[in-house]
Write a structure and sequence with these properties.
heterodimer, A: alpha+beta, four-stranded antiparallel β-sheet, 2 helices, about 25% helix, globular, B: alpha/beta, six-stranded parallel β-sheet, about 25% strand
Chain lengths: ~80, ~230
């Protein structure tokens, strides 16, 4: 089984290059882009289980300094 | 010039009003029905629709517009509108909703020529009002260049002198002058400085203290700090 998910990340810092590289350094994250609009980054995650998505978000992305909140979307098709 | 303003809320409507007063042609784009009606009741040309859609902007005349102000409270709409406007060769101005985003858009959004953060301008005004005194910071025009509005008081060393006699430091200029109770106008060499008159001065930060000393004299330290930082 494999799981793809998109994580929308809202930050509160203009230090976006650092946040982007810290997100991309997390195991399971395949890509993270700085985006225009009301969130600041969208990260793509490819892992084996939904539980790993939770780990990446809770103990990975949300612990990065400057990250305010996240929204997670699991791909269905 | 021809302008399209997206968003007829507090920021957009006020911007449209100022542009119209100065003789420019303005078309507003607004998707909320009530706001459309209100803007039309003020005799504005309004296109009802979503400013992030190209056909709506075409209806508003984007082909002939010189610049587009994307001034809604919705960042996605504002950015999409700037992308479309940039494609049509317009100058683009985008309103942002949080101050940390200013640098991000300046760095990455090539399609956006200028960023505005209305709350920052409001804060400068509020700070001036709270501090009071004879000096108001009007704007930071560059990293180290500020425009100040100074009110002449009875303590001003230059009170009673004419503008031609005011020897400002070399990196500062008098931009405008107004007698008490009259609007600001072009400064003339023979204008004399009396208490209550106002002088708009453009000055390097390094020379603010000297300008202040010359035109205001020894005022309280609190009022002297009215010139502020940019963030």
């Amino acid at each position: 089984m494999s799981v793809t998910a998109y994580i929308l990340v809202k930050s509160n810092t203009s230090d976006v290059d650092r946040v982007q590289s810290e997100i991309e350094a997390i195991d399971g994250v395949t890509q993270a882009n700085i985006v225009a609009g009301d969130v600041d980054f969208i990260a793509k995650v490819a892992v084996e289980t939904p539980g790993e998505v939770k780990d990446i978000v809770a103990s990975g992305i949300q612990t990065i300094s400057g990250v305010e909140n996240t929204q997670t979307y699991i791909a269905m098709a | 010039m021809r302008f399209i303003i997206i968003g007829a809320g507090r920021v957009g409507l006020r911007t449209a009003r100022v542009l119209r007063q100065e003789g420019h042609e303005v078309t507003l784009v607004e998707r909320d029905r009530e706001s459309v009606d209100r803007a039309r009741s003020l005799s504005f040309d309004v296109v009802a629709g979503d400013g992030s859609r190209e056909e709506v902007l075409q209806e508003a005349g984007i082909a002939e517009a010189d610049a587009v102000g994307a001034l809604t409270g919705d960042l996605n709409v504002n950015f999409a509108a700037c992308l479309i406007a940039n494609h049509h060769g317009c100058r683009t101005v985008m309103r942002i909703d949080e101050d940390y985003r200013e640098e991000i858009y300046q760095q990455y959004a090539d399609e956006v020529d200028e960023i505005v953060y209305p709350e920052r301008l409001g804060a400068i005004g509020a700070k001036n009002a709270l501090l009071g005194g004879s000096i108001q910071a009007i704007a930071d025009v560059a990293q180290s260049l500020q425009i100040l509005l100074i009110t002449i008081t009875d303590q001003s060393p230059m009170k009673g002198y004419t503008l031609s006699e005011v020897a400002l430091p070399s990196d500062s200029r008098i931009l405008a002058f107004g007698k008490a109770d009259e609007p600001l106008g072009i400064p003339l060499p023979d204008d004399s400085l009396e208490a209550g008159d106002r002088v708009a001065v453009l000055a390097e930060f390094s020379e603010l203290a000297e300008v202040r000393q010359l035109l205001v004299g020894d005022e309280s330290a609190a009022a002297a700090l009215a010139g502020g930082e940019s963030s």
